[in-house]
Amino acid sequence: MSEQLKVPTMAEMMTEGKQPEILFWVGSAGSYDDRAKKITKAFVKILNKANVDFAVLGTEESNTGDVAKRAGNEFLFQMQAVMNIEVLNAYEVKRIVTCDPHSFNCLKNEYPGLGGNYDVIHHTQYIQELISTGRLTLDGNTYKGKRVTFHDPCYLGRANSVYDAPRDVLKKTNATLIEMKRHKGTALCCGAGGAQMFKDAEPGNKEINVLRTEDAIETQPEIIATGCPYCNTMMTDGVKFKEKETEITVMDIAELIANA
Amino acid sequence: MEYIPNIIFVILLIAGIGYFANNVKKLIRNIKLGQKVDASDQKSERWKNVVNIALGQSKMVKRPVSGILHVVVYVGFVIINMEVLEIIIDGLFGTHRIGQEYLPATLYGFLIGAFEILAVLVLVSVAVFWIRRNVIKIKRFLSSEMKGWPKSDGNIILYFEVVLMCLFLVMNATDTVFQTANSGNVISQFIAPWFSGFEIETLHTIERIAWWLHIAGILVFLNYLYFSKHLHILLAFPNVYYGSVEPKGKFNNLDAVTAEVKLMMDPDADPYAAPPETADDEVPAKFGASDVMDLTQVQLLNAYTCTECGRCTSSCPANLTGKKLSPRKIMMDTRDRLEEVGKNIDLNKGKFVDDGKQLLGDYITNEELWACTTCNACVEECPVSINPLSIIMEMRRYLVMEQSAAPMELNNMMTNIENNGAPWPYNQMDRLNWKDEN
């Protein structure tokens, strides 16, 4: 990325006596995973373009504990949550946006019980808001007529019933949205959830991400759009496994919009 | 002598309902073995779910073929059973078709006519269901957990319905008074000619036999419920009421853990303090679940409500890719174990005596539990708001927090989070490096 990204931290904001309108929760994948970092940067590019007054926690952010919780380690989850809530509350954070549906779900649904009450939204919802309020405009040519299929992340869709925001945003790019047979409530998981990302699958006759990629390939897409860093990895691997990487690109909605 | 049929009827009724009530008592006792849950919140949302999901079958029709056929059988079964009311009154007081006597002729004709049409629709639907199970062999009816009893159970219920509907129609067809009145016999008038060669006495006997078998059949069916997967016709309603009204992604935070975490994070806490006094019989809270008693009462009600339709399993990503996990089996295992515990209590004068078994390991294996992606597809699919995922999560919690038995890669991941706040071994201080990387 040629242009310099503006990424203020909450600590910097505080020393200047400022409170940003929204906190960008980057998440562990968005901070460290090479593929996910591109999504993070694409989203910051959008925030910069729309002149959003935002900040990140930077080195003060820690894992939400979501994956530990799904793995069964409630202790570790709550330790992480209580730690993060202390930081977030100290900065008097009101609104949080994140590119990771797992962080989104965890911050939105599981932090309130431990004292962390914030208005949490997914980046596709925030992009939708930026477009509808006129803060972000798209030229609408980059993806005009391109065949795009959207893979619903479980923790955005089924878990929180957010189905329309990512689709609305995709339509704004003038791409042709083609639905997979299993979509929205019946969408198939990419295979990464519930801590599966960090372990080998149990014995079976197929990898879940391959099955899901086959669902996507049926729609003959040029682009598989996702809204989750883990889904992105799984679908990218699936496309490689099916040897379709020359025909199909896997992109996060933030990346699509950053170029649109 | 003339009261003998009435007496036999009363005995039959008391025996049938009494035995059922006794089993319902057991069922309630077994469910109460679970942990209490507070479901006093969001009452209007809960009732809305009962109306839409349970009464309105909104989730059933998401799969249109089985959904619509199911609605036919459900509506038919509920409405035709209004006829049972008349049968019971007739049986008790020795009357014959009391409705015909007291209701306006057109209304009675309309009611019985509607019952007869529904009976035929039920017969057709049940026939299609049987074909789907036994001829087309739809995959979700053939999973490994559906061998043996569960398979026969599914068919027996269909046979029951066929027999009951046929008895109802034959009873009407051979009732000469009813046929002569010629009102409401929309279907049975076509069956009546099959019996045209019979003496009036024989017809009367056939009608009586059909009548007695019909009511006896209903009582047998009622009592069969407790032993079959078919309890959902009753339990679906409370089960939907007690089902979750939160976003599906929201997993409960364990209070017992919160207490300990708060203590750990409290800088003023005395690390050498003795644990607070607890009542003598209070066992320290167990993290997660290894047996049915550790599950909640709602989860146990879920297990009794499951009718083994397999929509959950047919949408489970793990199951679809050949893994051992089947959400339906999780529910069936939970019920089987709960029944085993219940029988143990019956045999031991009301107290459970340790049988060296538990749900985890003896019924559900670690391999099944670790195959779950927590994607909520099973929860979304269930037409009666059963949550197999919550049981899987409780058992994972037990494995990790009580047994430290997570797969090695997950232990590594968790150690990383503990040490450096990320699931990978990266330095916490590098968390913002991405902003300057190209």
TrEMBL record, chain A:
<protein>
    <submittedName>
        <fullName>(Fe-S)-binding protein</fullName>
    </submittedName>
</protein>
<feature type="domain" description="Cysteine-rich">
    <location>
        <begin position="32"/>
        <end position="102"/>
    </location>
</feature>
<keyword id="KW-0560">Oxidoreductase</keyword>
<dbReference type="GO" id="GO:0016491">
    <property type="term" value="F:oxidoreductase activity"/>
</dbReference>
<dbReference type="InterPro" id="IPR004017">
    <property type="entry name" value="Cys_rich_dom"/>
</dbReference>
<dbReference type="InterPro" id="IPR051460">
    <property type="entry name" value="HdrC_iron-sulfur_subunit"/>
</dbReference>
<keyword id="KW-0479">Metal-binding</keyword>
<dbReference type="GO" id="GO:0051539">
    <property type="term" value="F:4 iron, 4 sulfur cluster binding"/>
</dbReference>
<keyword id="KW-0411">Iron-sulfur</keyword>
<keyword id="KW-0004">4Fe-4S</keyword>
<dbReference type="Pfam" id="PF02754">
    <property type="entry name" value="CCG"/>
</dbReference>
<dbReference type="GO" id="GO:0046872">
    <property type="term" value="F:metal ion binding"/>
</dbReference>
<dbReference type="GO" id="GO:0005886">
    <property type="term" value="C:plasma membrane"/>
</dbReference>
<feature type="domain" description="Cysteine-rich">
    <location>
        <begin position="148"/>
        <end position="235"/>
    </location>
</feature>
<keyword id="KW-0408">Iron</keyword>
UniProtKB/TrEMBL annotation, chain B:
<dbReference type="GO" id="GO:0051539">
    <property type="term" value="F:4 iron, 4 sulfur cluster binding"/>
</dbReference>
<keyword id="KW-1133">Transmembrane helix</keyword>
<feature type="transmembrane region" description="Helical">
    <location>
        <begin position="6"/>
        <end position="24"/>
    </location>
</feature>
<protein>
    <submittedName>
        <fullName>4Fe-4S dicluster domain-containing protein</fullName>
    </submittedName>
</protein>
<feature type="transmembrane region" description="Helical">
    <location>
        <begin position="68"/>
        <end position="89"/>
    </location>
</feature>
<keyword id="KW-0479">Metal-binding</keyword>
<dbReference type="InterPro" id="IPR017900">
    <property type="entry name" value="4Fe4S_Fe_S_CS"/>
</dbReference>
<feature type="domain" description="4Fe-4S ferredoxin-type">
    <location>
        <begin position="297"/>
        <end position="328"/>
    </location>
</feature>
<keyword id="KW-0411">Iron-sulfur</keyword>
<dbReference type="Pfam" id="PF13187">
    <property type="entry name" value="Fer4_9"/>
</dbReference>
<dbReference type="GO" id="GO:0016491">
    <property type="term" value="F:oxidoreductase activity"/>
</dbReference>
<keyword id="KW-0812">Transmembrane</keyword>
<keyword id="KW-0408">Iron</keyword>
<dbReference type="InterPro" id="IPR009051">
    <property type="entry name" value="Helical_ferredxn"/>
</dbReference>
<feature type="transmembrane region" description="Helical">
    <location>
        <begin position="109"/>
        <end position="131"/>
    </location>
</feature>
<dbReference type="GO" id="GO:0005886">
    <property type="term" value="C:plasma membrane"/>
</dbReference>
<dbReference type="GO" id="GO:0046872">
    <property type="term" value="F:metal ion binding"/>
</dbReference>
<feature type="transmembrane region" description="Helical">
    <location>
        <begin position="156"/>
        <end position="174"/>
    </location>
</feature>
<keyword id="KW-0560">Oxidoreductase</keyword>
<dbReference type="InterPro" id="IPR036197">
    <property type="entry name" value="NarG-like_sf"/>
</dbReference>
<keyword id="KW-0004">4Fe-4S</keyword>
<feature type="domain" description="4Fe-4S ferredoxin-type">
    <location>
        <begin position="361"/>
        <end position="394"/>
    </location>
</feature>
